[in-house]
Amino acid sequence: MRRALIVIVLAVTLAGCTGSILPTDEPKQLEAGVGEIDGIGYEQDLSVEPNDGLNQSELDLIVDRTMARIEVIRGLTFKQEVDLTLQTRQEYKQSRQESETDETARAWENRIWEAQFIGRVAKSSRVQ
């Protein structure tokens, strides 16, 4: 399950990636409809207050803007809404503690993180 999730995230991240990854001063020419989801643009400032937690309307705004930003990066529009699943920190830690990852899977995950220039994940599959 975890490996499938990582593959999906990697596929979505890299899908449609071409050209330079370095920022330029040139404005990006976008096709019609790319970079806007439900009226929320990819560069739009959002008035959300994360300090007290996010309500459903604030989560919807963040998802819409994130989808719009991914559209700009990919140059393609989404065909459907992205599902969002929230976990508390405790739920995430618990799921990590319950999962067993063999050395081959852990090495594969490390390569994915390195390829994204994020670095190495911990040798242990346990969250500290």
Write the layout of secondary structure elements.
Layout lengths: L1 H13 L21 E2 L2 E2 L14 H19 L14 H10 L4 H13 L13
Antiparallel strand pairs: 1-2
Describe this structure in words.
This protein has 128 residues and is mainly alpha-helical. It is 43% helix and 3% strand. The protein has helices at residues 2-14, 56-74, 89-98, 103-115; strands spanning 36-37, 40-41. A hairpin with a 2-residue loop joins strand 1 and strand 2. The model is unreliable at 124-128 (pLDDT under 50).
List keywords for this structure.
single chain, 128 residues, mainly alpha, 2 domains, two-stranded antiparallel ribbon, disordered C terminus
In short:
The chain has 128 residues and is mainly alpha-helical. Helix content is 43%, strand content 3%. It folds into two domains: 32-84, no CATH class; 87-128, no CATH class.
Number of helices: 4
- How far apart, in Å, are the first and last alpha carbons? 22 Å
How would you describe the shape? Answer: extended
The H/E string reads: HEEHHH
Rg = 17 Å
How would you sum up the major sheet? 2 strands, antiparallel
* Overall pLDDT score: 76
Q: Structural class of the secondary elements?
A: mainly alpha
Number of domains: 2
The side-by-side strand order for the widest beta sheet comes to 1-2
Q: Please give the number of β-strands.
A: 2
Low-confidence runs of at least 5 consecutive residues: 124-128
Strand coverage percent: under 5%
Share of helix, binned: 40-55%
